[in-house]
Amino acid sequence: MAFFIVLEGLDGVGKTTVARALTEDPYYTYLSTPGKELQPLRSAITEGLGESQTARALFYAATVQAEGERAAILLQQGKSVVMDRYSASTIAYAKARGVEIDLDATLSKVIKPDLTILLTLDEQERQRRLAQRGTTAEDQETLQPEFRQKVLTELRQRCDVEIDLTGCDEWEACFYTLLQFNAFLSTNRSPA
């Protein structure tokens, strides 16, 4: 049986690292929003949309729709999917930016994940990681405590489980995420 797992969280907590590590197994496929084809164009697109937070939110919603359709095809082929961000982030960031359109309704038909895991990290450690990799303009928003808290509050309401990765190295982060995944599998596996 194939499963659709989503990793959510603020930038710098290790989502991409964990998702990529989990998908080293050929049974799992790594996807992200925006998808790999749009990643190199994302900055140009969001800049081209100007200051319209609604237009930017709709762009990200479109990437969720596209990657959700891609995930559905893979699941039909019997391949499990690990997604680096999905609808919860799109909605949480849009709400924190003051977007008033109903993205829940817009994304109501996208495939639902079997499990959504929120990865968190001590804020000082997260900021240290951001500084090491180079803080982007989008990262700057989450350095503002009020914005960060709005995003995290919304993510916590939309995720099934939260894993605090404070002090974890890459191996430990993957291990704890796999523990949650295995706990999910053990309660959702069909009896033989």
UniProtKB/TrEMBL annotation:
The keyword Nucleotide-binding applies. Residues 7-158 form the Thymidylate kinase-like domain. GO terms for biological process: dTDP biosynthetic process; dTTP biosynthetic process; dUDP biosynthetic process. Its EC number is 2.7.4.9. ATP binds at residues 9-16. Transmembrane segments: none annotated. CDD domains: TMPK (cd01672). It holds the Pfam family Thymidylate_kin. It catalyses: dTMP + ATP = dTDP + ADP. It is an enzyme of class 2 (transferase). GO terms for cellular component: cytoplasm. GO terms for molecular function: ATP binding; dTMP kinase activity; nucleoside diphosphate kinase activity. Keywords: ATP-binding, Kinase, Nucleotide biosynthesis, Nucleotide-binding, Transferase. Phosphorylation of dTMP to form dTDP in both de novo and salvage pathways of dTTP synthesis. Belongs to the thymidylate kinase family. This is Thymidylate kinase. The gene is tmk.
